[in-house]
Amino acid sequence: MSTTITTAAVPGQGGPGGGSRFTWALTDSWTMTRRELAHWAREPVQVVVGLVFPVMLLLMFTYLVGGGRGVDGDPTEYLVPGMLALTMAFGLESTMLAVTQDLGKGVIDRFRSLPMVPGAVLVGRSAADMLQSTAALAVMGAVGYAVGWRWHNGAAAALGAVGLLLLLRFAMLWVGIHLAMVAGRPELVQAVQILVWPVAFLSNVFATPASMPGWLGAVVEWNPMSATATAVRELFGNPGGATGSWAAEHAQLLAVLWPVAILVVFFPLAVGKFARLSR
User: Fold this and answer.
1) Rounded to an integer, what distance in angstroms lies between the CA atom of residue 108 and that of residue 102?
2) Is the pLDDT confidence value at 17 over 50?
C-alpha cells in the first residue's frame, strides 16, 4: 500500500489543525480516493479491460448480433443509450474484489485503528468507482458517436441523461459494496456478480418490450435498468419503442425513484455492516 495516511485528529475533536469534523472527513475521504486511484496506475490492464468490455459488446450487438429489435427508426440510436445504461452495471466486480481483498488482508481493520473518519474508506472506494464510471460513459459515448448514434435535444438534456446514468451506478455501487462485505472473500465475488446479469439483460437495452411475449415485456418495463434506459433515450431524443404503459410514460420519474429506493435500502446496510466488521 503506497498511500500514507496522516491525521492529527482524535475522533470527535475536529480535524487536523483544529479544522471542523466535516473538513476532516473530506480530507480522509480524499486520501482514500487517492489510494484507490493509485491502484489504477499499478494495475492499468484492469482499468483498460473495464473500459473495453462494454465497447466490445456495443460493437458486437451493432454489427454482428443486431440490437434494437422492434424499434421504429434507427436501431443504433435505440441501442447506444441502452448500452450506456448497461455499462453502469459493468465493473462492479472490481469494486467488490477491492473490498474483499482489503477485508482478507486486514487492511480495513488497520484503517479502523487509525484516527480517521471510519466511513472514509467506503467514500474513497465509491468516489474512485464513480470516476471510472464517468470515464466509461465518455468512452462509450465516443464509440457510439463513431457508429452513428446522435443526441438531438441539446446539452442540458444530455447532461440530465448522464446524471440519471450515474445515479443508477451510484445505487448499484452500494449494492456491490454491501454484497462484497457479506461475501467476505474474493473467490465468492464472481458468484455474487452473476446476480447482476439477470437484472442487466432482463431489460429493454437490446429490444423493445413490445417485441417480447406479453408477460415478459411487462416484467422488463419495471426493471430499474429499463427505466433508466428509456429515460435517457427520451432525454437524448432517441427512439424509445414506447408501449404506452405507465412505466414507459413515467420513465424519467422511475429512473430517479428506483435508484433512490435502492440507496435507501443498501446504503445503510453497507454502512452498518462496515461498522460491525471489527466488533
Assistant:
1) 6
2) no
> 259: which 3 cell numbers?
435508484
Q: How far apart are CA 28 and CA 16, in angstroms?
A: 10
Given this model, what pLDDT does residue 242 score? 63
Between 130 and 26, the more confident residue is 130
Q: Is the pLDDT of residue 16 over 50?
A: no
Start-to-end CA distance of the chain, whole Å, equals 24
DSSP, collapsed to helix, strand or coil, labels residue 69 as strand
Residues in the chain: 279
Comparing C-alpha atoms, which of 137, 138, 221, 39 is closest to residue 229? 221
Q: How confident is the model at residue 207 (pLDDT cuts 50, 70, 90)?
A: confident
Q: Is the pLDDT of residue 99 over 70?
A: yes
Q: For residue 208, give the C-alpha cell.
A: 423493445
Distance CA 1, CA 71 (A): 50
Average pLDDT of every residue of the chain: 81
User: Which residues contact residue 226 at a Cβ distance below 8 angstroms, ignoring those fewer than 6 apart?
Assistant: 203, 204, 205, 209, 220, 247, 251
Phi, psi of 180 (to 5 degrees): -65, -40
Q: Cα separations (Å) of 187 from 28, 180, 184, 192, 193?
A: 29, 11, 9, 10, 11
Percent of the chain as helix, strand, coil, to the nearest 5 = 75, 0, 25
Identify whether the C-beta of residue 103 lies closer than 8 Å to the C-beta of residue 9: no
Of 221, 232, 190, nearest to 88 by C-alpha is: 232
